[in-house]
Model the fold of this input.
Amino acid sequence: MTVEKLNQMGFFKPSPTEQHAIDFLKELSFNTIKSIGISTAGYFEGFWAERGKQVIATTLDKKGMEYTKNLLSETPNLTFRLEDVTQSMPENDCTYDVLYSRLCLHYISDSELKKALAECYRVLKPDGHFIVVVKSLNDWTAQTAGAYYEPETGYTYTPSITRYSKLSRRLHSIQSITEALQTAHFKISHSNELTETIYEDFERTTLEMPDATVIEVYATK
Ligand SMILES: C[S@@+](CC[C@H](N)C(=O)[O-])C[C@H]1O[C@@H](n2cnc3c(N)ncnc32)[C@H](O)[C@@H]1O
Done:
C-alpha cells in the first residue's frame, strides 16, 4: 500500500513540524536522508522513499521499528536499523544530503548530544541540511509537580508523570539547542517554537493532553 493510501486510512497522524520539514525539503534537490529516531512515525520517511530518495531510518525502539517496518513493507528505498545515536555512526564521512531527527534528541543528555551532533556533522555532506525537532523547556511537563532541572546533564525530571518509561527529557530552549548545533559547527538557518499534538502510545491512538511545546531548528553543514 502507498504511503498516501496509508495516510488516507488514518495510519499517520498529522504533525506540523513533520509537514514543515517536508515542505522545506520540497524546494531542495537531494538523494539521501538519515532519519534518527523513527519509532512508529514513518510518514516523513515513506513520503520521501516513495519519491526515490534513499532513506535510512534508525531507532532504539525495536517494537516500534517492527511496527513501522511492517506498515511500510511495500515502500521502496527505505531501510530500518536499530542504532543508538549516542554511539559512533557506522557511515563514512559526508554520506547524507539530509539528516532528520524529530522528537528524539531530547532523550539524551548534554554530553551525549555533543557527541551525537559531532557524528551528525561528520556523516552529513557539505551544504547538507539537518532538521531537528526537540521538546521545549516551555512544555507543560516542566511545570508538573516535583519537576526539576539538572544542570549537569540538562535533563528535566518529571517524577509525577508515571507513564513515561524514562522520567527525564532534555527539554531545550531555542538558545540551548541552537548553541549545541553551532558548537558542532552547524550553521542555523531557521528556528521556531510552536505547540503541536503528540500521542501517548506508540500506535499513536491516545492524544497526549495538553499539546506539546516543541522547537524546530534547521541547520546546514
Ligand atoms: C517520540 S519517538 C519519535 C518518533 C518519530 N521521530 C516521530 O517523529 O514521531 C522517539 C524516538 O527516539 C528514539 N530514541 C531515543 N533515544 C535514542 C537513542 N539514544 N538513539 C536512537 N534513538 C533514540 C526512540 O527509540 C524513538 O524511536
About this structure: Residues 37-39, 41, 59-61, 64, 84-86, 102-104, 107-108 surround S-adenosylmethionine (CB under 6 Å). The two ends are 35 Å apart (CA to CA). The chain has a mean pLDDT of 94. The chain has one domain: 3-136+172-220.
